[in-house]
C-alpha cells in the first residue's frame, strides 16, 4: 500500500473520541493466519537522503518469517521542504502529511493513520535504527510479558559517533528521572519501540514535541502497563543532518522539554 493521505484536521489522544479496535484482523482470519497485524510509523522531517532506504529495509522484513503480519509502513512527512514525501511513496510507504511541526504530533498522526492494526512499531527515518531488531522487540510483548517494549541503544551496540556525548548524558538523566519518579527501569529513551495500538491510544498523551518518548513511558507506568526494554543496535545516521543532536541550541531545548515533560507527568499522574 502506497500513496499520500491528507493531514488530519484535528488530532486528539482522547480515548473516548477514538474507536479502539479489537485485536483481530478479518483479512488474516480469512486466510487462516492468526498472527497479529503490525504497522510501522516513521516520522520524518527533511530526510530525503535516507527515507527510501529506511522504507526498503522495513519492507524487506516481510521475507524474514516475522511473527506478525507487516500490514503497512506509514511515513509522516512533518513539513519537509525537500523530497522526503516523494521518495517515501516511491519506496512503497503510505505518506501521511502533517505540516504542523512537532515530533510527537507527527507520531500521533501516524498512529491514527495506521488504522485497525493490532501492533505498532515506531522508529526514526534517518537510518540509525535497524528494523531487523523488530523480532527482539516483539518477543516480550507476544509472550505476554510486556505492554510497551523500548529498544535500548546503550544496552545494545552503537556505532562510534551515532550517539553524541550530549545524547548519552541526556538519556542518562531522563532514564534516572523515570526510574526515580515512576519506578520504570530503563537505560535509554530511544525511538524504536513497539506496543499495541489500543494501548497507545488509551494513554491519552498530550506532548507534541520531543517529550513524546518519555511521556509514553511515564503514562504507561502510571496506568499499570508493563514497560520492558531490550538491546538494539544503532548506526550513525545514513545521511542528512540531525535536527537535534547536530545543534547545541536544539539539544538544550530538547533536553529541557524532555525533563519538563517527565516532571509534568509526575505532577499530574493522578489525573487522566
UniProtKB/TrEMBL annotation:
Residues 21-34 have a biased composition (Basic and acidic residues). It holds the Pfam family Glycos_transf_2. Residues 1-34 are annotated as: Disordered. Residues 40-200 form the Glycosyltransferase 2-like domain. InterPro entries: Glyco_trans_2-like, Glycosyltransferase_2, Nucleotide-diphossugar_trans. PANTHER family: RFBJ PROTEIN (PTHR48090:SF7), UNDECAPRENYL-PHOSPHATE 4-DEOXY-4-FORMAMIDO-L-ARABINOSE TRANSFERASE-RELATED (PTHR48090). This is Glycosyltransferase 2-like domain-containing protein. It comes from uncultured Thermomicrobiales bacterium.
